Amino acid sequence: MEQFYQVLTWIGVFAYWLLIAAVTVRVVFKRRVVGVSLAWMMIIYIVPIGGVIAYLLFGELNLGKKRAERAREMFLPFGNWFKQLNDCPGHQPQQMSLVAKPISDLCENRLGIPGLIGNDLSLQSSPQEILRSLVADINQAQHSIHLEFYIWNPGGLADEVGIALIQASKRGVKIRLLLDSAGSMRFFQSHWPKLMRGAGIELVEALAVSPFRMFFRRLDLRLHRKIVVIDDHIAYTGSMNLVDPAFFKINAGVGQWVDVMVRISGPTVSVLNCIQAWDWEVETGKRFLPPLPSCSFDTAHKDTVQVIPSGPGMPDDIIHQVLLLSIYQAQRSVVITTPYFVPSEHLLHAMKGAAERGVEVHVVIPRKNDSVMVEWASRSFFSDLLESGVHIHRFHGGLLHTKSVVIDESHCLIGTVNLDMRSLWLNFEVTMAVDNIVFTQELSQLQQSYIADSDEVNKEQWSKRSMKNKLVERSFYMFSPLL
Questions:
Q1: Binning pLDDT at 50, 70 and 90, where does residue 62 land?
Q2: Which residues carry out catalysis?
Q3: Using alpha carbons only, how large is the chain's radius of gyration in Å?
Q4: CB of 120 within 8 A of CB of 263?
Q5: What EC identifiers does the entry list (predicted)?
Q6: Same structural domain, 331 and 416
Q7: d(CA 228, CA 238)
Q8: Is 236 helix (H, G, I), strand (E, B) or coil?
Q9: Which domain covers residue 249, as residue numbers?
Q10: Interacting residues of 77 by C-beta distance below 8 A, sequence separation 6+
């Protein structure tokens, strides 16, 4: 009997070794960023069995068989729709600036989406302004409203938006609402879904979370986009979820969330509408290709807006490429605001390189973060950045959730994308590259108000932090490619 158990033990050891070897080979053959592969292998080796299970659940970008098949079938019709934008009056590449043209060329070659002129943009920077503006536009809607958000949290002014949507639906406006299952969990547990569906609103729970689905799709893959399109004429996008900050995570100890949204009219509205239609079809299988931009918009607005979506089904790391291109083009200044700062090695080198060649580089992040892991991982990058001359500001007016990059106070990036690996390589995201000096300077002034409400990290004082803190930072740094 003892010999039997000994043989059984050896079989178990060999089977475990075979499992570890197989998963390691799979990690290596995926040819991802080296840091990501090393982080996963460390987890696999340090946490027996659990590390392997974690990799099988979260280690690969698995959209699920049904969604992946839909996405493949959608490439041609959506590609043809985007191709027709080249015939739109707003597509005038000869009028693009020297900074807008390379970004537009990159996005057109990889995504098929060109930059378009003829847009009117309005920056909204307070939750009351954003939500009341949204309610006013919903109340004026005539035929359609399409929305998608990561989080809808009931309470406060968010409820006024819900009421406005129900009233619009009752007067005959067709409404499609797509909400991420994990981010909007409180909403789906509330009375709102029943009210909305009873009023005729098409409400869909995107990327539903359940123990059964974890064997078929990566559970932490999230719909992180924020898009509203009203009557194919007005659109909103930016960093703000459908929440009233006075009623959202009030016990988290980080203060109220600070966000921006951009209200848009012009040909870019149709592009955002098409991205929402893409997400709707991936989730439901129903196709609603929107109308192409009309020819009646104001071409007096010559500045370019480039819409850049990313996520499963889109070209890999497209927003990451645009970020790098923008920083490398900087001549005088780069100002970045982000709630979650865990940059890739390429972004880290781009920021350091910009500072070392004399560009003023500022990074503004929250002083307190709702993610402990991200906060410690962020700190692990401070020393390298400070040594290169990058200015780091820790905002103490709440959880700064605005995702923005302003280059030379002349052009900018604004949208849903955090400077972390999850946003840049995993989630469904959208950002806009805006070549409009008036809009950019307004955004720059807002960024400066954030900096005025921040404490700048002092290089000498930072170098004197405790060895314990340094050890914790380095520990979380090892896992930063997975955050």
A1: low
A2: 224, 226, 231, 401, 403, 408
A3: 23
A4: no
A5: 2.7.8.-
A6: yes
A7: 10
A8: strand
A9: 65-91+118-301
A10: 287, 289
